[in-house]
Amino acid sequence: QVQLVESGGGLVQPGGSLRLSCAASGRIYSIGRMGWYRRAPGKQRELVATISRDEDTNFADSVKGRFTISRDNAKNTVNLQTNSLKPEDTAVYYCNAYILGSDYVYRDYWGQGTQVTVSS
């Protein structure tokens, strides 16, 4: 059973920072792309950032220059450093990973989500 568990969300003032973390556990043979998505109230889920196993990164235009993504392949973790947060960044943030499990099939896995609220 593969699981993704996020942590690090919370309430922060505009201009502040938060570091979101996600750890994958279970019978994992390899992890390909990892990333973060978010869903704001009344909106569809959208990509925030992704990182390949070789650490090639991709960011939504709305977060470029403010967010960074990193991963630790030895620990099966991915982190999202969010800086200069704006009220429009308020959303539930979801971790995503493309994982090769014990059946030697790659599947997309999702975390349960962590709330980020940017408000004064």
Strand content: over 45%
The major β-sheet equals:
7 strands, mixed
Number of alpha- plus pi-helical segments? 0
Gross morphology: elongated
The radius of gyration over CA amounts to 14 Å
The SSE string, one letter per element, is EEEEEEEEEEE
Mean pLDDT: 97
Distance between the termini: 40 Å
Low-confidence stretches: none
What is the structural class? mainly beta
- Share of residues in helices: under 10%
User: How many strands in all?
Assistant: 11
Question: What this model shows, in words?
Answer:
With 120 residues, this protein is mainly beta. Helices cover 0% and strands 58% of the residues. It contains no helices and eleven strands. The strands form two sheets. Strands 2, 4, 5, 6, 9, 10 and 11 form a seven-stranded mixed beta sheet that branches. The chain has a four-stranded antiparallel beta sheet with strand order 1-3-8-7, with no helix packed on it.
Question: Care to give the gist of this entry?
Answer:
With about 120 residues, this protein is an all-beta fold. It has strands at about 5, 10, 20-25, 30-40, 45-50, 55-60, 65-70, 75-80, 90-100, 105-110, 115-120.
Please give the structural blueprint.
Elements: E1 3-7, E2 10-12, E3 18-25, E4 28-39, E5 46-51, E6 57-59, E7 67-72, E8 77-82, E9 91-101, E10 106-110, E11 114-118
Parallel strand pairs: 2-11
Antiparallel strand pairs: 1-3, 3-8, 4-5, 4-9, 5-6, 7-8, 9-10, 9-11
What are the key terms here?
single chain; 120 residues; mainly beta; 7-stranded mixed sheet; 4-stranded antiparallel sheet; 58% strand; elongated
